[in-house]
Amino acid sequence: MKKLFARGDFDGDGREDTVYQHNYSRRTRTEIDNSPDPFQNEWDTVVKWFFDHEADVYLTIHKNGQDTLHLGPAQGLYCLINIGDINADGKDEIALVIDYLDFSNVNSCKIYSVCNNQWTRLKQFGVHEDAFNFTSDKAPIFDRIKGYLEKQNDSWVYSDYSQDYDSGKAVDEMLALKLDRCK
Predict the structure, then answer these.
(1) What is the DSSP letter of 102?
(2) Which partner from 26, 35, 100, 139 sits 20 to 30 angstroms from 78, CA to CA?
(3) Average pLDDT of the residues in 58-67
(4) DSSP annotation string for 128-156
(5) Residue 43: phi, psi to the nearest 5?
(6) Residue 119 in 3-state DSSP?
(7) Phi and psi (nearest 5°) for 148?
């Protein structure tokens, strides 16, 4: 199983941290390292396997006193991206898309920051999972979400698939990514 990580200063102490993805089985109380391949098995079989193992995807920074971000039952993450300190609070933010155990290609990108020693969601916007399709034999590491979260002219921009789809606006219109500071 592919497990992602991101490096940056996520707690604002001026030193590099690493955020690690974990896939944990609550049933066996162990890390999930192998699972049925969704390209080789029926999706129903893969979903059942993860639910039978009571899968929980979560993120940690391996430092004492750091919060754990539980993301819930999922196959893993499509992406985990350090997007830098967008809100100028001295801490880098992360963007992620969860590979849910569902039958939909509509998903969301969630942006988190450590606020008062806890992971806090600062923004969420819709994406279509087609952005994560690839044709090579090896899955790429996504450092952007094509058409939904990209760096242009040294600034992050985004497009909200859910809002664009509902409003009839052009889906490819990119807006400057702005985030509020922690409250």
Answers:
(1) S
(2) 26
(3) 86
(4) EGGGG---SSSPPPPSSBTTTEEEETTEE
(5) -60, -40
(6) strand
(7) -130, -35
Angle at 56 between CA 55 and CA 59, to 5 degrees: 145
CA atoms of 111 and 5, how far apart (whole Å):
15
pTM above 0.85, yes or no: yes
Residue with tokens 């039952």: 73
Rounded to whole angstroms, what are the CA distances from 179 to 73, 83, 86, 122?
27, 11, 6, 7
Q: What is the DSSP letter of 45?
A: H
**Residue 21 tokens, joined:** 């993805």
81-105 pLDDT, tens digit per residue, is 999 999 999 999 999 999 999 989 9
* Residue 36 and residue 101 in contact, taking contact as beta carbons nearer than 8 Å: no
Nearest to 69 by CA among 6, 5, 118, 3: 118
Neighbours of 156 (CB within 10 A): 21
Tokens of 3: 């497990």
The three-class DSSP label of residue 36 is coil
